[in-house]
Amino acid sequence: xxxxxxxxxxxxxxxxxxxxxxxxxxxxxxxxxxxxxxxxxxxxxxxxxxxxxxxxxxxxxxxxxxxxxxxxxxxxxxxxxxxxxxxxxxxxxxxxxxxxxxxxxxxxxxxxxxxxxxxxxxxxxxxxxxxxxxxxxxxxxxxxxxxxxxxxxxxxxxxxxxxxxxxxxxxxxxxxxxxxxxxxxxxxxxxxxxxxxxxxxxxxxxxxxxxxxxxxxxxxxxxxxxxxxxxxxxxxxxxxxxxxxxxxxxxxxxxxxxxxxxxxxxxxxxxxxxxxxxxxxxxxxxxxxxxxxxxxxxxxxxxxxxxxxxxxxxxxxxxxxxxxxxxxxxxxxxxxxxxxxxxxxxxxxxxxxxxxxxxxxxxxxxxxxxxxxxxxxxxxxxxxxxxxxxxxxxxxxxxxxxxxxxxxxxxxxxxxxxxxxxxxxxxxxxxxxxxxxxxxxxxxxxxxxxxxxxxxxxxxxxxxxxxxxxxxxxxxxxxxxxxxxxxxxxxxxxxxxxxxxxxxxxxxxxxxxxxxxxxxxxxxxxxxxxxxxxxxxxxxxxxxxxxxxxxxxxxxxxxxxxxxxxxxxxxxxxxxxxxxxxxxxxx
Length: 587
What we know:
Helix content: 10-25%
Radius of gyration: 27 Å
Low-confidence stretches: 221-233
Distance between the termini: 52 Å
Oligomer: single chain
């Protein structure tokens, strides 16, 4: 008979870690006597990061005495105290390879249901002082599991654990964990997982993605920002950078120029998906070459790509492009990349942009016009005034080729009404004006522009009734950080790392505009990025969860800790990798 050995609780607290402050509830300790277990947690317990832990689906974490003994032997440590793995219930029995998702158990007065394995999390490594622990829990098939509270009640150490119902499909916790984090997945087990009502929504969505032969959009249980960063399957058109020739340069406005790029040998270019971008490497001065990314602004021809660049007053690269670059010059270009792409399907399309953010959605509009797409298309663009409205005539002409197109242009400066342009309005789009446009609530919306603009428009679209997963965004700067549990600090502009200059190969963080030599003082590429205050995304920091997956624009890396599952070609797990050559990362 399985038995509850210890009830462990702990309130969230701030813990110093690697120069940062982490707000965490991982420090849990045994309590004496009976404790009430409620829908969200055990009385006296709390979680510091509710995005990944806690809540109704993850109210109670369970870990086994047998796993304690296993880790004492594996780690060469004796006397690990109950609660050190962050669990609420330490139990004798209930092994991960026998307990199944959907199983129900009565403990004391309460009844519980198994919902998912433990989420891979660096904080268990913090608590134990074993940085690789998140990876080891998966590799050794000993993750532990979460319970949902079916019936509230008191529990205490010594209570017997009685199985009251077996879950459907009888898919064990260990097998469920392996399905997400380990290679060579069994399709039959994947189908079983999706047939278990008790499985938590985060894990269910990840398995749906896997069933569609895709990597999970995000670590289950974490916020959804990562979904927009995944690279579509299919290898890049060419590895690293190759030289392309500037065919012509066309001024669009006083501040925007379009650069047409062709191959040096006349060979056909690989097709790019509308919305993708090119990474450009330029030797601007005597310093290391600078890398910037620019969206393709039209449907590529067989032998030409077009990018459009806004001259930023203090932008080193954009200033060079506008003042120094000439037709005939050679430029290093990486193949088209990016997941902000026009999707096929029957749903209406809404293309919304501000300023130079028009470039990727203009490429989408080119594609829609070229195919005379029958779907309703709504084009919404914000510019300062007519003189600074790039692609005004081009976009208008493309829209006239579509059977169901609607155009709305906003000028933030005073706009003189023009009888030939009834679609031009002074001001900015608002929630009421978006509603008045009659945007279908089942539409796919594509947004590009300043972050504040996309945040505001995205909020208005959600209020209007669009589902969050139908609102796609693209931004040219660094992506928002995902650093679970880390207490936010004042944002710092990315910079060269402190300390002596490295002597290794050059590392370029393309989105952040930083190039710096590698130093062996850094444990990983993630460690170097953090030293430069480049916004980063991670969860386990051991190569398991793939939250840190990053496009490898150029170069080669090696893994200091072999990932349990390698990422897709052309990407890298920066949390556990180092460079072997010069590297360009999309960070």
